[in-house]
Amino acid sequence: MAEHADDRPRGPLAELTLARVRELTREPEAIFWVFVFPILLAAILALAFRSRPPEALPVAVAAGPRGEGRLAALSAQADLKPRLLAEAEARQALARGQVVLVVSGDDPPTYAYDPTQPDSRAARLAVDAALQRAAGRLDAFTPGHAEQTEPGTRYVDFLVPGLLGMNLMGTGMWGIGFSLVLARQGNLLKRLVASPVRRSHILGAQLLSRLIFLVPEAGALLLFASLALGVPVRGSLLLLVGVSVLGALAFSGLGLLTAARPRTIEGASGIMNLIMVPMWIFSGIFFSTDRFPHAMQPFVQALPLTALNNSLRAVMLEGAHLGPLLPALALLAAWGVISFVVALKVFRWQ
Amino acid sequence: MALPSPTAQSALRCRALVKRYGDVLAVAGLDLEVARGECFGMLGPNGAGKTTAVEIFEGLREPDAGEVEVLGDRWRGDGLPLRRRLGIQLQETKFPDKLRVREVLSLFRSFYPRGLTVAEAMTLVGLEEKADAQVRPLSGGQKQRLSLACALIGDPELLFLDEPTTGLDPQSRRQTWEIVEGLMARGRTVLLTTHYMEEAERLCDRVAILDHGKVIALGTPRELVASLGAEHVVEFTVDEGASRALTAEVLAALPSVEGVAREGARWRLTVREVHRAVPALLGVLAERGTAPTELTTHDASLEDVFMALTGRRLRDG
Predict the structure, then answer these.
(1) For an interface test with A, which of B62, B75, B80, B110 has the most A Cβ atoms less than 10 Å from its Cβ?
(2) Which of A204, B77, B208, B291 is the most exposed place for a label (fewest CB within 10 A)?
(3) Could you write out the three-class secondary structure of chain A?
(4) For a pLDDT cut of 70, what percent of chain A falls above it?
(5) Nearest residue on chain B to A192, judged by CA atoms?
(6) Residues of chain A contacting B59 with CB distance shorter than 8 Å
(7) pTM of the prediction?
(8) What is the ipTM of this complex?
């Protein structure tokens, strides 16, 4: 019987890749986690940390002979919201966090506040300045004010590259790891190995399908961030794509490594969480890695997601060129290559 | 045309095959030869080493000792040239739920340089109507036929079927048998494992009965049954007191009885002629003041051969 034109149009690598792409596109959960979730997260966090006019700081003035006068002086300040309370009540309000500073009733007054709270410290400066001025102190000069709230320095600008990195890690590891462990569990890997197909094609198809999905996945998040949130891409778009591809491949390598041995999804999940949870915390997705103590920095900076996030931020926010990124990219590539090599050595095919 | 050489005649040969898992000897010195165009059955209970042996033949496991020759070739390297000539159905394969039948077959077709078309493979196993259905909603029998189609799509010279009908309903089982019979009619070689004696009796030209990793009997189903020396089996049960009073010698002396076996209160006689043995048996029981609480007779089968050789049943129930 003559073969139909569409019966054998593709080679094994193309067919294996296509099978993987078909599987993923027919899985509503996968679509949600890969495409919708990062956008949703970016939108929610942008809303929560949106730039807004600074709120007036609530402070209390203890009742006393000079209480009314102090209240009037503080009420004239736009960044303070004072109220007059009995001394004991004022202390209670401070303890409950309802006010950030209490001006005592005696003369000269005592400021009660928590110096570890930025709001308390700010209130102390503002309250002191206002009361001193009311008492007759003169300003030596009047400074100008330049407020910085343009795109590129907001929290959401910091956040989006981190979310992109997090997503590349998650989809690389879950996408590759789960599908391989499921295939092993259901004897499909063994059945493929029993067929005349190269093992490199079986694993290569996993990587190819990852790269195919990278395009809509990273594209959707960046497009949303750019159009809806005004997040800038200051560096070369080509470099951004290159960094993303390298990141996707490095985490595919790690995904392959985590999936190299486990026979069950439960086993694989445990290993994946063990690898991913530290990076969620230490790799600067939601806050800067500078927050960790100096002694921890060698560990923090050696993580592949730290390298990816730093590189993505440098390209998007600082407009960095390839040169300064090379050490981080080399680290990322090393993670990927070493994972691949080890995974191939220890891979359990049946 | 010149006569084919002995090697070309045999589809599979193994000598002194051994495979250990820790302390367990799964395959304990197996010698087999399967001729081309033959349907060869490996019959045995669970744990007899059938699957291990087949997976060694398929190049999926390395034997600890012994030699295997498949289609005149040996397993080496990735074995791709040899794999292109084999069809393999594992005991159970879970294909991706979300792929359609047509897509699974087209995937497996892409591995072979020649073979059936996807449409031909679907027709062969009767899945044409399910071409665009996803794997998930298929019935157990349909999934098994899809797995069979994947094994057939490279138009293999030698087909391995590992328990192809285990867990299937009787109708799906018969469908599978018909597909295999169709292949045999086209001159293909099939090696199948099973623990269903009726499957081996219906499909196989020759059967090797395996137990504890060794061949304990080999021959055509007819030869094996004939080796019992009697064509019928009488099974009966008497209450325990009466069972103790009976001896194998008394029963063996009954007319036409060739063999006696006992499992607790249950006795099995292999007999040449049921109509002579049963009245004599009832007479012996009556002399001892008892009667059977149960008595059945059937034609001797491979199951009876297995029981005669091992004293155990192939499977429970």
Answers:
(1) B110
(2) B77
(3) CCCCCCCCCCCHHHHHHHHHHHHHHCCHHHHHHHHHHHHHHHHHHHHHCCCCCCCCEEEEEECCCCHHHHHHHHHCCCCEEEEEECHHHHHHHHHCCCCCEEECCCCCCCEEECCCCHHHHHHHHHHHHHHHHHCCCCCCCCCCCCCCCCCCCCHHHHHHHHHHHHHHHHHHHHHHHHHHHHHHHCCHHHHHHCCCCCHHHHHHHHHHHHHHHHHHHHHHHHHHHHHHCCCCCCCCHHHHHHHHHHHHHHHHHHHHHHCCCCCCHHHHHHHHHHHHHHHHHHCCCCCCHHHCCHHHHHHHHHCHHHHHHHHHHHHHHHCCCHHHHHHHHHHHHHHHHHHHHHHHHHCCCC
(4) 95
(5) B108
(6) 194
(7) 0.79
(8) 0.84
